Amino acid sequence: MNLNKYLAVSPEVQAALDAGKPVVALESTIISHGMPYPKNVETALTVEKIIRENGAVPATIAIIKGKLTVGCTPEQIEYLGKRGLDVPKASRRDLPVLLAKGEDGATTVTTTMIAAAMAGVKVFATGGIGGVHRGAETTMDISADLEELAMTPVMVICAGAKSILDLGLTLEYLETKGVPVIGYRTKELPAFYTAHSGFSVDYRLDTPEEIADAFKVKLDCGLQGGMLVTNPIPDEYSMDADYINENIDAAIRECEEKGIHGKATTPFLLDKIQKLTAGKSLEANIQLVYNNVRLGAEVAKAMCR
């Protein structure tokens, strides 16, 4: 199968992959849907800078004019940031149409994993993953991120599942799908804005080398799917659990009252929580992403060793 028609890997990323150098994949939904312009572009470029400073090559992924682009240029990041919400949020189901029509798309965790796997990138750092939504026992609202983790051989480093979700059911779903959930220096699942959720992860690993070794064994044994590495938000940026949960509950009530559902749910909730917390949640979001990409660079280097 010739992927060149649908996949564009930047010369820098391809050269790094060919030379066996560490590469860290990054999503683009955080650029176009995660925060307003120009904060989104500033954050995306800072993330790339942090990865370079830590000895790896960043590969921001997006759909640009009908191509899965692995390694966006600064100009392409600026383009995505300026277009903002006009760029469709693209999950697995959206890929065939967007690519066929030559359109743009902001990649979610799911589509970033797909493109990374196509290009040969094994490590992907992001903010938080999607999961099982509250009330999913009646709505069946379960993020495609969980299915992708069960299928696609890419390690995802994040600050846990977003605390707008049902974290207990999210862990149960991942267990059913055979996805290892690793806590980096913790046995507790981080809850995105806060380091504490009250739920336990499968394993605690304390070094990037241990994480890289575990993932290498998974690949060597031909075990399907990826691995989820949860990295708690640094203590100085962690929000009080009661405070953030009160605001999450208020945002969910408004979401239900307005009849918002499906893929519009998460962007609405994150925006509402940002407003309710007077921007504190956005700052926490940015800092946890920075923390995750630092770990991503270290793990990618350990895998190359």
What does this structure look like?
The chain is of the alpha/beta class. Helices cover 47% and strands 13% of the residues. The protein contains 13 helices and eleven strands. It has helices at residues 11-18, 29-32, 39-53, 74-83, 95-101, 109-119, 136-139, 144-151, 167-176, 208-220, 241-257, 265-276, 280-304; strands at 7-9, 23-26, 57-64, 67-70, 89-90, 106-107, 123-125, 155-158, 181-184, 203-205, 227-230. It has a nine-stranded mixed β-sheet, with helices on both faces. Strands 5-6 form a two-stranded parallel ribbon. The chain is globular and about 50 Å long. The model has no long low-confidence stretch (mean pLDDT 93).
Q: What is the β-strand count? A: 11
Helix content: 40-55%
Side-by-side strand order of the widest sheet: 1-4-3-2-7-8-11-9-10
The helix/strand class is alpha/beta
The oligomerization state is: single chain
Q: Give the percentage of residues in beta strands.
A: 5-15%
Order of helices and strands: EHEHHEEHEHEHEHHEHEEHEHHH
Principal-axis shape equals globular
Question: Topology, please?
Answer:
Blueprint: E1 7-9, H1 11-18, E2 23-26, H2 29-32, H3 39-53, E3 57-64, E4 67-70, H4 74-83, E5 89-90, H5 95-101, E6 106-107, H6 109-119, E7 123-125, H7 136-139, H8 144-151, E8 155-158, H9 167-176, E9 181-184, E10 203-205, H10 208-220, E11 227-230, H11 241-257, H12 265-276, H13 280-304
Parallel strand pairs: 1-4, 2-3, 2-7, 5-6, 7-8, 8-11, 9-10, 9-11
Antiparallel strand pairs: 3-4
Helix pairs in contact: 3-4, 3-13, 6-8, 10-13, 11-12
